[in-house]
Amino acid sequence: MDGEVFGAFTSSPWRPHGHDYYGSGEAFVWRLAQSRATPCGMVQDQILLERQIQVFPWSGENRNVQSLVNANDSPLILGGGGAEPKTNSHNDDNNDNEGLALAIDATLSKGTSDKCLTFHSPALVKSTDVFDIANIEVWTLTPVENVDQAEQLELSRQFVFDHGNFLEQ
């Protein structure tokens, strides 16, 4: 989209995980409040424009934080789906209009964004159509020194996430 800047943070590394979601409640999606294409008279105006960031943290409504089916040809997915089913209750909520917060195709050149229950976020872009990605940045931060340590840290975080009572009311 023209000048729209948005992104996500995940504390879990991206790795093939079949058709299951994974990740932790530390994840969030974000967007600049206004497009970079917004006319600015001075550099200081542009700086002020880019300081206005909207952040949408994990809502706890579901565990659909991130997904990567396989490393070759599947999209990177953040958020999605409806609420987790509640035990001994009938969920009449209609979450059919809840989509993926962000999906980036395997070539990292196209994406989509929609309203998402996982982060209580609106679409991160003005249009919910497929958009072209003009620029992408990927960062990694880790408190470990090698891949084995990183995998062990991730497994321990995933265990806590899978066995915690994050969604109980």
Report on this model:
- It is a single chain.
- This protein is an alpha+beta fold and 169 residues long.
- 15% of the residues lie in helices and 16% in strands.
- The chain has 2 helices and 8 strands.
- A 5-stranded antiparallel beta sheet has the order 4-5-6-7-8, with no helix packed on it. It has a 3-stranded antiparallel beta sheet with strand order 1-2-3, with no helix packed on it.
- The chain is globular and about 50 Å long.
- The model is unreliable at 87-95 (pLDDT under 50).
Summarize the entry for a quick read.
The chain contains 2 helices and 8 strands; from the N terminus they run ββαββββββα. It is an alpha+beta fold and 169 residues long.
Mean pLDDT: 82
What distance lies between the first and last C-alpha atoms, to the nearest angstrom?
39 Å
Which of globular, elongated, flat, extended, rod-shaped describes the shape?
Answer: globular
Proportion of residues in extended strands: 15-25%
Regions with pLDDT < 50 over 5+ consecutive residues?
Answer: 87-95
Instruction: Give the helix/strand class.
Output: alpha+beta
Question: How large, in whole angstroms, is the Cα Rg?
Answer: 17 Å
What is the chain-wise order of helices and strands? EEHEEEEEEH
Q: Residue share in helices?
A: 10-25%
Major sheet: order of its strands?
4-5-6-7-8
User: How many beta-strand elements?
Assistant: 8
- The helix tally amounts to 2
